[in-house]
Amino acid sequence: MAEPHGGHPAPTSAAWLSALLTFGLLAAILSWLSLKGSPNRRAALCATAASIVWALEATFIKSTTDTLASDGVTGTLIRWPVYALIVGGIVGTLLVQAALHVGPLRVSQPLIVAVDPFVSVILGIWLFGEHFNNQPLRIAIGCVAFGLMVVGVVLISQTTPPNLDPHPAQERSDG
């Protein structure tokens, strides 16, 4: 609804550095903080960190594919975004798995789904200079739609059973 557009295809080095330091440091701090606390707290912090990393990963994908299209495989392999893409994929996967492992799905899932697009919008503006349609009604509808998506994910994730054992009431026998 908000129709992000405009901007430029390649971020400046200063924009990359500031965005990577800001969001990389935030994800690292959240990951470190997730080492202690209740399962809910740990899952929330890991999920938020994972979502930040996946939002960064989207920027690495964009930069890598743009470089691949313009400079080919060799040009891609001599630039850093392809390597950030690999590292980001590994780190993002580990953080998601940690979030799913340390606490309940009803805590981690809404954060994984909601934080990523929110950070992605910020990164699109910050790195690529994107801007939104300047019609307030369209922006308001986009914000309401995002809010409804978050509410829907939270409601759906709250219906997950506390124990994912498919047969909790049945007794198991060895025979």
Show the helix and strand layout:
Blueprint lengths: L12 H21 L5 H39 L3 H22 L2 H24 L7 H22 L18
Structural overview:
The protein has helices at 13-33, 39-77, 81-102, 105-128, 136-157. The radius of gyration is 19 Å and the shape is globular. It has one domain (13-157). 27% of the residues are buried. The chain has 175 residues and is mainly α. α1 (13-33) runs antiparallel to α2, α2 (39-77) packs antiparallel against α3 and α2 (39-77) packs parallel to α4 (105-128). The chain has five helices and no strands.
Query: How would you describe the shape?
Result: globular
Content-based structural category: mainly alpha
**From the alpha-carbon coordinates, what is the Rg to the nearest angstrom?**
19 Å
Count of distinct structural domains: 1
The succession of helices and strands, N to C, reads: HHHHH
Q: Total number of helical segments?
A: 5
How many beta-strand segments? 0
Measured between the Cα atoms of the first and last residue, the distance is 59 Å
The major beta sheet can be summarized as:
none
Low-confidence stretches: none
Could you estimate the helical fraction of the residues in percent?
over 70%
What is the beta-strand fraction? under 5%
Task: Determine the mean pLDDT.
Answer: 88
